[in-house]
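Please describe what follows:
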Amino acid sequence: MITLVVLASVLIAGVTVYQYKEQGNDYHQERLERKEEQLIKSINYTLKETTYPVTTENLHLIFSEEIYEIANIQNVNFNIYDLEGNLIKNSRPSFDSNTIATCLDAEVLNFLRESGETKFVEEKRAAGDNYQAIYTYIYDLKFKPIGILNLPYFEDNTFNNMELKEFLFRLAMVYILMLLVAIVLAYFISKYITRSLQTISDKMNRTNLTRQNEKIYLESPGEEIGKLVDSYNRMIDELEESAVKLARSEREQAWREMAKQVAHEIKNPLTPLRLTVQSFERKFDPSDPDIQKKVKEFSKTLIQQIDTMSNIATAFSSFADMPAQQNETLNVVKVVKLALEIFNEDYIHFIADEEELVAKLDRTQLIRVITNLVKNAIQAIPEVESPRILVTVATVGDRVKISVADNGLGIPDENKHRIFEPKFTTKSSGTGLGLGMVKNIVENYGGTITFTSKVGKGTVFTIDFPKEQKK
């Protein structure tokens, strides 16, 4: 709307200026022709009434006084030249006669003589105005040329220009008013049109798969907006149905996966347990002097495998429901060292800022946290040329900070946001519950766990717990 108003104002202003110029040109052309016609009639009348012979030589006598009378009656100034272009008489006062050309240009004379035309019109600009001059023959009573009449005419466009300015000013005022009205109308119309769209946009921005979404209800929407609202409401219904189906499917899938994982993890220690029992049965000899030692080793092996199965069961149950917290006052440095003793790898190093850092934690669960983090670090460096795992314990303010760093494969960016998800694992074996359980334990004791990782460089897991304040 605004663009149309502006374009219309520019086009109408241009057409108006053009029309005024054309009207001015037509007016001056007609006025000049009228004055020429009236002037020729007056000259012919004078030639009829004169007592002098009508010849070129007598023109200055014939119009000696009559030229002023004619100029006064017709309200024009004109000049009379002989056939050679020499000035014979002009109607201007004697003190102004020095501005009159005393001889015509050769162009004018040649045109009148050779073209067969009886009139020559000269157009040019002088003193900032358009100037026209008519040159035409003066004939005697027998239609024989005896002189040349020159009628100069200056176009005075002052009135037209002033009128044009006034009209354009008024037109501008009208279009400025129309432009303001168009802006106001465009604003309110666009607001009215986009009101429904804004409502739809707000609803779509608040759409969330994790909660129930509201439908859109509009009063008297347009046909297109109504179709859009209906489509959105149908989408919300389908989305809720899909969410219910997806949740049911995920629960069923989770139970199936959990069952598979439990079965798989329990079968792993059963195989060596079976082989151990069979081997012991074949080699058992009551008379062997080392029988007591072998029975002891056999029992130890069985207990280890049973403990493994127990740990597996505990891992699954612990993830769903952590046991009650056993808040013990522990020396974190000592417990971490104890957790590392079960690992025989010589590339595992331990550093502590102090000999004793006290915190209230559950010993078993702290060991479980350290064990899981170190196992993950070991599994991340199978192909590293110079593997290194560094476990550090330090104090930062009123917190105990434990870090486990490795120079292994690192964690790809696409997996970082899933590291603590249950059942997520990138290894071919394992429950995928280790880091999820670690996070659960750490947070239950008011701690936090974070990590940084770069592919090909390694990973650093950092956990911190509140430090026990000395009394």
The two ends are 79 Å apart (CA to CA). The chain is about 55% helix and 15% strand. The longest strand covers residues 129-139. The chain has a mean pLDDT of 80.
